[in-house]
Write a structure and sequence with these properties.
Number of strands: 24
Helix content: under 10%
CATH class: Mainly Beta
CATH architecture: Sandwich
Largest sheet: 7 strands, mixed
Oligomer: single chain
Order of helices and strands: EHHEEEEEEEEEEEEEEEEEEEEEEE
CATH superfamily: Jelly Rolls
Shape: globular
Strand order of the largest sheet: 1-3-4-11-6-9-12
Radius of gyration: 18 Å
Length: 278
Amino acid sequence: MRVDVRHAAHPQDVKRYETEMLREHFLVETVFIADEICLTYSHYDRMIIGGIVPTSRALVIEAPAAVGQATFLAEREMGAINLGGTGSITVDGETYDIARFDCLYIGKGAADVSFSSASGSDPARFYIVSTPAHETHPNVLLKPDQVRRVSAGEKATANERTIFQYVHPDVCQSCQLTMGLTRLAEGSVWNTMPSHTHDRRSEAYLYFDMDPAHRVFHFMGEPQQTRHMLVASDQAIISPPWSIHSGVGTSNYSFIWAMGGDNKSFTDMDHLAISELR
């Protein structure tokens, strides 16, 4: 298991970062490696993101030193979305079959959690997000046709998209984790513009379903001190509470979003007019 620890950064420092330092602090360039569990532990709301790709064997998730517990979910909850072939997740002896775009929410206290693929030649690719938890909620398998679906944007502003809300108060109970995915329609390239911040929650983005030749310009930073990073498919962004988080691609794309923090209200955000950005 590979674990990378990222510390929090003050916005007054970040506005002085050059490109490489910005990417070092906020971009996770490698999320998925065959037969590996790759985790990034962020000190923003103690969120953990990672990729799990079992090919030749089941992969068991263990607690890294940063968690300080005997088991990974002793004081945490987790959401796992499969972006690959059919797989399964076994939680304390109960196995859940996980197809592409299925999500499994796993509650606090689960002791033994392992990840498997039905076929090594077409392995599952599990993207996981974990946040601290104060109580236990039931494990729930969520399929795309069971979640809350929201249509947003329009062709005229090149941001027509569908938002799938998986771990969301109207769909699945959690302590603080919210999680879902957004898919942009063909011909649309903008997400979350006009932009916003939500100082009460941190967020992470995983961009996927992009041709290797294309990129997303991910915009972050304080509204009057914006910065950007070029992000390839299967790379993730850690978004601080004080930062905007918008993107525009050289083609349409999809992304998984996840949040942790003081509340679970998806609409709790501080909106910004485009004219306010600098």
